[in-house]
Amino acid sequence: MSQSPSSQVAPIIAKDCIRTQFSKAMSDMYRLEVPAYGALLDLVISSNNRYLENNSAMVTQLQQVENIDTLSEQRHGAIRLGKASELSMMRRIFAIMGMYPVGYYDLSVANIPVHSTAFRPVESESIRSNPFRVFTSLLRLELIENEALRQKAESVLQDRDIFGDQVRRLVKLAEENKGLTIAEVGEFISAIVNVFRWHSEAAIDSALYAELLQEHPLIADVVSFKGPHINHLTPRVLDIDEVQGKIHTTGAIAKAIIEGPPKRRCPILLRQTAFLAIKEPISFAGEEQGPSEFFHAARFGEIEQRGVALTKKGRALYDKLLKETRLLTRPLNDGSNLTQYLQQITAVFNAFPDDYQELHLQQLAYFKYSICDTQIAPKIEHSTTIAELLEQGVVRIDPITYEDFLPVSAAGIFQSNLGDQGEVDFNQQPNQEQFEADLGAAVADEFMLYEQIQMDSIATCLAFFNVNN
Ligand code: OOG
Ligand code: NI
């Protein structure tokens, strides 16, 4: 039976596809807003291309787990929210793009009054398609001691609506119809990108801005504006040391140290560096606009090199070694003890095996198992184990890329833009329960997700060889 065009239902667009379009739209916007980010992106693309041309073994390895053609399009971003209702709405928005909250990060340890999660895809095929992640922080006004100021900030946040009716309508539509059509996706993406746009006019007066800034620059950044501007985007780079040395060519100033583990043959977790936040002129609601007296520094650019995801055991070793290093030398924002810090961290991390076979053997990291050659692989004995298949060389292992973040690194990134006051530590006050209540959902456990990917890959290999194990 033929249908008239009007009765045909437009197909629903895959979440992975919406996420890819969104990531690109965000990058295009940020490029226009922060030109140094565009320059950084160009550096990353040429460095990655050069690296892939010269490292064919790395290409083979990466291809097992990743889409190598879109490597330079991979990135994460970060936003900071002011109240619970913003966080729960953001969760619904990201779910439409196949991004779900993973992990809980308590930044109060580093004098940053926020706690955070990362919205990201969780299935291995979705990650391969596009791993775009957004590090999302929620302000914790309860950590502010100045009662009067806290109340003022609270009432500013209470009154604001960062989403607007169009966003709410589209989110409801997507939830009801279990997705969006191509026309709706276009509207959705431009509406959401708008939420993250920069507003140079503050939503408060200059006196309150000055007070908030005095209390903590991060509070001023979250409370003062009409929306949660994207504060950085971070392209993925394969050789972070090379690009770190070139960041100054973008016209911006490079952060002094690369956060995370030292340079290794087999990269683990995540290494990150950034250029310092640019100073942007701002004006104030209802105030005469003179030659700008106020410059707001919040938005920066970052790059990251991702390595293998660690098991709980591997992560415990990483945390122990990092702590040991920082007891010897705490890296200073101005880079004045950089040489000493690099020597210490390199020496201390000698205790972390730098060989994939060894990392696998000691169960320090997660690996994807795959069949070496489906054409020539023989049928194997019924009782063969995955370890035997590996030993026989019919199955190979490749590192599963770390998709998450590191709290000490995140603190270092925050602090590089906060100046000296960021050096004082709060007491550690995690409150995952409150965060999840505000989010309206539990955050996923990153270790369980990697474990599942590893187990699924083993199951696929065993099924291929008809091995019941
Ligand atoms: C987030 C900082 C954390 C990272 O890569 O660790 C982060 C922020 O500055 O809002 O993005
Ligand atoms: Ni970041």
Structure notes:
With 469 residues, this protein is α/β, with parallel strands linked by helices. The chain has a single domain (9-467), classed as 2,3-Dihydroxybiphenyl 1,2-Dioxygenase, domain 1. It is 44% helix and 15% strand. The protein has 18 helices and 11 strands. It has helices spanning 15-33, 35-54, 56-65, 84-96, 124-129, 147-159, 164-177, 182-195, 206-215, 217-223, 240-244, 312-328, 338-348, 356-361, 386-391, 407-416, 432-439, 446-464, and strands at 75-81, 100-106, 114-120, 133-139, 201-202, 232-235, 270-281, 283-284, 295-306, 367-371, 395-399. The strands form 3 sheets. The protein has a 7-stranded mixed beta sheet with strand order 2-3-4-1-6-9-7, sandwiched between helices. A two-stranded parallel ribbon has the order 5-8. A two-stranded antiparallel sheet has the order 10-11. A hairpin with a 7-residue loop joins strand 2 (100-106) and strand 3. Helix 1 packs parallel to helix 8, helix 4 crosses helix 17 (432-439) and helix 7 (164-177) crosses helix 8. The longest helix is centred in the N-terminal third of the chain and has 20 residues, at 35-54. The protein is globular and about 80 Å long. The termini are far apart. Bound molecules: 2-oxoadipic acid (OOG) and nickel (II) ion. Nickel (II) ion binds at residues 76, 78, 135, 232, 234, 302, 413.
Produce the secondary structure layout.
Blueprint: H1 15-33, H2 35-54, H3 56-65, E1 75-81, H4 84-96, E2 100-106, E3 114-120, H5 124-129, E4 133-139, H6 147-159, H7 164-177, H8 182-195, E5 201-202, H9 206-215, H10 217-223, E6 232-235, H11 240-244, E7 270-281, E8 283-284, E9 295-306, H12 312-328, H13 338-348, H14 356-361, E10 367-371, H15 386-391, E11 395-399, H16 407-416, H17 432-439, H18 446-464
Parallel strand pairs: 1-4, 5-8, 6-9
Antiparallel strand pairs: 1-6, 2-3, 3-4, 7-9, 10-11
Helix pairs in contact: 1-2, 1-8, 4-17, 7-8, 9-10, 12-13
The chain binds 2-oxoadipic acid and nickel (II) ion (NI).
